[in-house]
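Give me C-alpha cells for this 124-residue protein.
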Amino acid sequence: QIRLVESGGGSVQPGGSLRLSCAASGFSVVYHAMGWFRQAPGKEREVVSCIRSIDNYEVYADSVKGRFTISRDRNNNTVWLQMNSLKPEDTAVYYCTAEIGRGCNALMEAPDYWGQGTQVTVRS
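Here you go.
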C-alpha cells in the first residue's frame, strides 16, 4: 500500500527556514516523480515543486524559485523540501505528492497520491 507522511511543518518568523520531510512507503521515491503542493486559506491548491525520476530535474513555482529546494534520498525513501527566506505568503498546508510512472507534467496536473499535509505558518 502506498503511503506518504509529511512532517516538519511549524511556525516561523519571516526570513526563517523550515525543512519538510515526506516519508514514503509502498514504492521507491527515486523511480517516480515526487512533488509538493500547498494550499493557503481561501486559495486554490498550487504546485510548489517537482523532481523528475529520470534525471532528478527539478521544477519550481516562480514564487519559490531560489528559496526552496526539493531533494530525495533512496536509503530513507524520503523526499524533502528545504524552505529558506520564508515569507508570510508561504503560509499554507503543504502536501507531499507522488506520480507513479508518468513524470512531473502529470504530477503537476493530478498526482496519483497525496499525503495528509503539514501546516507551515510564517508570521512575525
